[in-house]
Design goal:
The protein is of the alpha/beta class and 835 residues long. The chain is built from 29 helices and 21 strands. Helix content is 52%, strand content 16%. The model is unreliable at 93-98, 391-400 and 451-462 (pLDDT under 50). This is Haloacid dehalogenase.
Length: 835
């Protein structure tokens, strides 16, 4: 290390700062806590309703009728286990490398841990290290830092004495001694991410629809449950008779049968299962889903904001080509220039551009050559030089001059140090500006024949090396940000799917626009590029402009959030990708936040989706999986809401006519499993790429009403007429059991009708599935244990005839409702629309 005059903090001063709490430690939770995950999955409205119903049934001693309560355990368990698994993966991703830093204390250098740094410490920042805390540079020896994680700017920044450096940036070359000015939660990065730490639950259209139903049922269930209990008590002879005979228990069970039937518990369970399965499938493709509900949001995304660095590009630099200048175009000389370029880049610690040149030329067969002397690259000089002994002449022969000096550096700097050739240099700069405008990083190679002056220039130990003014420009070197090979293909997929993509970056808008053209962001159309400094600060004004903009450069973190807000004003469902701390606010504000696996911990913590291997190409599969979930869930949700409709209708009919409840909770469990639950799970996993359209609940209700009304009327009409026809006394246990067994058969057949309607077209495996579950229901009735457990009775004799007549009537009612109810519903909606 260079010698310095400062002694740094003493041991006592360090102890005082530790006692005062000015230590470089941040209480940073990288993801949701276990307690938050458990609370969110346990304390739900659905769990509360089902638990209350289960407790009521268990209080009667009829545990067989309480099996519906297991759905709470299964549903809650799925949510907790899946989100805990995501948390563990995220926490592993977020663990920072436990680096030690070289700190100058008591006049000597000591290695300490990141958390051991205190306020006012003198810290050495070495090439390759992440800056551990905000600091002011005391002395710099060519320090260059990458601040892209904080600013989005992909170019490295040269730092000199008096400049500030921020935690989260990375030293890419050089060395500096810095004095710490802010630690822990007071640092720039911690301050920037503080706004993003508050957890915000993903809004799920599906769960919102289910919760709307549950809230409605909450207001309906309590009074209806009371009325059902009263009606069932009257049906068995009143309060005193029910209490004396113990039939109050049956009254409670019957009431719960009506309540449970109205709650789409299977839909809630299937939603969790489907989200969990989608999350597991995505995990196989290195895509981590932190919140199950975000799977649904994937289906609704119609606007995708992409951060350039880390998403479109991988953050690295790629060597493109050497362009020989007009006076130096010669095949052999081009090879010599390429070899010189390799040797110029082949330093002990090459910077990012040097590494890119070495990799690019290495793939073309170049390797290290003989270098007599070297002047390493300096960010202060902005050029490097080598002396090659025995270099050949322009024709490529080895019998040329004894030695040559080659220079590589920033074109404007190198040309400024050469003898002014007026128009020639101006032409070169114009060429440089053209390539820079296309998004390239441009370097200039110059060559000088060895002279006395040049020999002094090339000395590596010279205090202040200078360019040989007689050197001649030879070639331009073009480098660019390394674009992910899958970027163009992925963006084409989104265009085909109708998803509007924009690139939002902190980098130069010219550079970002050039990259957008290379990856064909807008297809054949030229992308519209703007500088964020020209945009208004008001979201309302911005939303009028944003529709026509494809690329925005020089974007600050708060502006990224503002852009997301403006897109929300235009009713877009916005997804935002990113990897830097500067992306955290926008990722949190977006409907769906997507972080790269190499992202800053704070960014991954607020994202709903993490692409673990940082591959942009996973996004089409992510969106397709979300569409599959939502399209299929809409298909099967109708199955569950049919049960809600007919249960509400039957409960209302029972209360009004004071009849015994027509079936038991265990009947609903058996029938629901065979005609709703298991078939729905199979249908939910079927391939489906339909884009999700808002209005899930309205479409599902319109589907559910015909089947629900038909089933409810069939059960009620049978309950009102069959006892009179058959001469049954429903106050007698045996006759009531026969009636309920018949009603269970009617429910089952109507359930098969509804299943067949949902599964259309009934070709191939769909038709076979309906037949299999219909047969399973009949076979189950023939198995003694199943029949006893679920209180199923196979009708015989006159009961069989009555059941068949009831089924014919039910089919007729179903057919009428199938055509009449949708027409009536459509007419009502039309009248409301035109008011």
């Amino acid at each position: 290390m260079p010698k310095i005059d400062e002694t740094g903090l003493s041991a006592d001063e360090v102890a005082q700062r530790v006692a005062a709490g000015t230590v470089n430690r941040v209480k940073d939770s990288t993801s949701r806590s276990v307690k938050d995950i458990v609370r969110a999955n346990v304390f739900t409205l659905f769990n509360g309703i089902i638990l209350a119903a289960m407790v009521m049934v268990l209080a009667t001693g009829s545990w067989k009728d309480a099996v519906f309560g297991f759905v709470i355990i299964i549903n809650t368990g799925i949510g907790i286990v899946t989100e805990l698994k995501a948390k563990r993966t995220l926490d592993r991703l977020s663990i920072l490398v436990a680096s030690d830093y070289l700190v100058h204390r008591d006049g000597r250098d000591v290695e300490i841990a990141h958390d051991g740094i205190v306020m006012d410490d003198l810290v050495w920042i070495r090439s390759g290290e992440q800056v551990p805390a905000d600091a002011e540079i005391i002395s710099s020896w060519g320090l260059e830092v990458d601040e892209s994680m904080l600013t989005g700017e992909s170019r490295t920044v040269r730092k000199k004495s008096g400049d500030d450096v921020y935690s989260g940036s990375t030293a890419v070359s050089g060395l500096a001694l810095v004095k710490v000015t802010a630690v822990g939660e007071r640092s720039y990065a911690a301050t920037l991410t503080a706004k993003a730490k508050v957890y915000r639950k993903t809004v799920s259209d599906l769960n919102k629809g289910i919760n709307t139903i549950l809230k409605f049922m909450t207001f309906l269930v309590v009074p209806l449950c009371v009325l059902l209990i009263l009606s069932q008590l009257r049906a068995v002879g009143g309060w005193s008779e029910a209490l004396a005979t113990g039939q109050w228990r049956q009254a409670v069970v019957s009431a719960v049968a009506g309540v449970v039937g109205m709650i789409p518990e299977g839909l809630v369970l299937l939603t969790s299962l489907n989200f969990a399965v989608a999350a597991m499938r995505l995990a196989r493709h290195e895509t981590l889903v932190q919140e199950l509900e975000s799977v649904e949001t994937l289906a609704r995304v119609d606007c995708l904001n992409l951060d350039k660095t880390g998403t479109i590009t991988d953050g690295g630099i790629a060597f493109d080509r050497i362009i020989m200048l007009e006076d130096a175009k010669h095949a052999d000389f081009e090879r010599e220039a390429a070899q010189a370029l390799y040797d110029l880049a082949n330093e002990e610690q090459p910077n990012a551009t040097g590494r890119a040149v070495l990799a690019g030329l290495g793939e073309r067969g170049y390797g290290p050559g003989e270098v007599a002397r070297r002047v390493p690259f300096s960010s202060a000089r902005k050029w490097s030089a080598i002396v090659r002994a025995g270099a050949g002449n322009d024709s490529g022969s080895t019998a040329g001059r004894a030695a040559q000096t080659w220079y590589m550096g920033a074109p404007e700097v190198v040309l400024a140090g050469l003898d002014d050739e007026g128009a020639a240099h101006a032409a070169i700069l114009e060429q440089v500006n053209t390539y820079a405008g296309q998004g390239s990083r441009v370097l200039l190679i110059a060559r000088a024949h060895e002279t006395g002056v040049n020999a002094e220039t090339a000395r590596s130990d010279a205090d202040e090396p200078t360019l040989d003014p007689h050197a001649e420009p030879v070639a331009l070197v073009l480098c660019s940000e390394r674009i992910r090979p899958d970027a163009e293909r992925t963006l084409a997929w989104f265009r085909e799917q109708g998803v509007r993509c924009r690139i939002i970056s902190g980098d130069n808008p010219v550079t970002v626009g050039a990259i957008a053209r290379r990856v064909r962001l807008t297809g054949e159309r030229e992308p519209v590029t703007v500088d964020a400094r020209e945009l208004p600060d008001d979201p309302t004004e911005l939303d009028r402009l944003i529709e026509d903009i494809d690329v925005i450069g020089r974007v600050l973190p708060d502006q990224k959030k503002l852009i997301v807000d403006a897109l929300h004003e235009r009713d877009y469902t916005v997804a935002m990708t990113g990897d830097g701390v500067n992306d955290a606010l926008a990722i949190k504000e977006a409907d769906l936040g997507i972080a790269m696996g190499n992202a800053a911990p704070a960014t991954k913590a607020v994202a709903q989706i993490v692409l673990v291997d940082s591959k942009f190409s996973h996004l089409p599969d992510v969106v397709a999986r979300g569409r599959q979930v939502m399209a299929n869930m809409e298909r099967v949700a109708g199955l569950f809401l049919v049960k809600t409709v007919y249960s509400a209708l039957i409960s209302l009919g029972v209360v009004l006519t004071q009849i015994p409840y027509p079936y038991l909770p265990r009947h609903i469990t058996y029938i629901g499993a065979l005609t709703i639950g298991v078939p729905a799970f199979i249908l939910a996993l079927a391939p489906n790429t339909r884009k999700y359209i808002p209005g899930f609940l309205g479409r599902v209700v319109r589907f559910a009403l015909p089947g629900g009304i038909a089933t409810g009327l069939s059960v009620l009409i049978t309950a009102w007429t069959l006892p009179a026809i058959m001469g049954w006394d429903v106050t007698a246990a045996a006759d009531l059991a026969r009636l309920r067994a018949t009603e269970a058969i009617i429910l089952f057949v109507m359930g098969v009708f509804v299943l067949a309607r949902v599964a259309r077209p009934l070709t191939g495996w769909r038709g076979l599935m309906v037949l299999v579950f219909a047969a399973a229901g009949v076979i189950g009735m023939l198995i003694p244990f199943v029949a006893r457990f679920f209180a199923l009775i196979i009708p015989t004799g006159s009961t069989l005839v009555a059941t068949l007549i009831a089924l014919i009537g039910s089919a007729f009612i179903f057919a009428i409702c199938l055509f009449a109810v949708p027409a009536a519903t459509h007419a009502i909606l039309e009248r409301r629309l035109h008011r």
